[in-house]
Amino acid sequence: MIGNAADLVIVHLYPDLLMSYGDRGNVLTLVRRAEWRGFSVRVIGVARREQLPTTIDLILIGGGSDRIQGLVGNDLAGRGRELAELVGGNTVILGVCAGYQLLGHRYVGVDGGEVRGLGLLDVTTTAGATRIVGRVSTRASFDNRSFDVSGFENHAGRTFLGAGVSPLCSVPKGKGNNGVDGTEGAVNGSVVGTYLHGPMLPTAPAFADALLVRALARATGGAPLRPLDDSIEEAAELSERTRHRKQLTSRGLTRTSTWANWGRAHRLPPRERSSSRAAPTDGHAAGSSVALRLPA
Fold it and tell me: What is the per-residue pLDDT across 179-197, written as a single tens digit (0 to 9) for each?
């Protein structure tokens, strides 16, 4: 404990609205991996019109529909200067799907309506006519480290990166940010955005720890973290990666198969197709579920 503040202060922005698709599991993963190392952690949910705490080490912004994104957009834009100052002081921000889009310059919906973003990532997103859907298993890079990640994407947004960011991952054509350039997610210093749900961090312990090394710098001075036994997490990630590979192989698909072929191979039965049309405008489907270890 540092003074009256916990070693790690995590803010979950708009947990009452951007709370779907298992992204809260990312919060829980970061909390547990810090606590297992003996650090004290405080998680603060901040809704619209609520003040941010004075000390923040890490901020998470989850996913939600276009309608929800519009609801939080104005409130988030009003926090722009404050969040930019926090990032300048080494606060880590992780945005998933809608949260990722809101970290960029703007999001333009299917109706042409525009939601202004924070501009913390040099990306711009426009809603497409079709969705990018499927599982992703690949390598990611952050803070001069690389690691395996797996997750599930389901988004209509087409996100294009500017010169001020680097992609988080490389993916096959038809997936990722826009289905065209083979990129997924974006990184600018301590700000990270991704489309991968799942949640992603429970099966990506090395990525979670890379975020924690930065976020815990106030307590550690940037020192390396004590290693943990990640055999369970690594087994879960390997299982996800193997299952994904078997699904593609059983349908005669290769890594370079077109997304159209993949979509046809994974066509939903009639009842599921009908229910999917009734989904929210961002249409996120449920991702893979992962059981987290709890402290003894």
Answer: 999 999 999 999 999 999 9
Query: For residues 165 and 148, what is the distance between their CA atoms, to the nearest angstrom?
Result: 20
Q: Extract the tokens encoding 273.
A: 């197709």
Runs of H (alpha helix) within the chain: 24-35, 66-77, 80-88, 98-103, 205-215, 217-220, 231-250, 259-265, 270-277
List residues with catalytic annotation. 97, 197
Q: Report which DSSP code applies to 177.
A: T
User: For 31-57, what is each residue's pLDDT tens digit?
Assistant: 999 999 999 999 999 999 999 999 999
Report how far residue 21's alpha carbon sits from residue 285's, in angstroms, rounded to the nearest whole number.
Answer: 7
Task: Identify residue 102 by its one-letter amino acid code.
Answer: L
CA-nearest of 106, 69, 40 to 283 is 69
C-alpha distances in Å from residue 227, one per residue of 207, 217, 232: 13, 16, 14
The tens digit of pLDDT for each residue in 126-136 reads: 999 999 999 99
Buried b (16+ CB within 10 A) or exposed e, 57-74: bbbbbbbbbbebbebbbe
Whether omega before 199 lies within 30 degrees of 0, making that bond cis, reads: yes
Length of the chain: 296
Cα distances (Å, whole numbers) of residue 224 to 51, 56, 160:
32, 20, 33
Own/partner pairs, 22-25, CB within 8 angstroms, 24+ separation = 22/197, 22/198, 22/199, 22/286, 22/287, 22/289, 23/60, 23/62, 23/63, 23/96, 23/97, 23/99, 23/197, 23/199, 24/62, 24/199, 25/198, 25/199, 25/201, 25/202, 25/290, 25/292
Give this prediction's pTM: 0.81
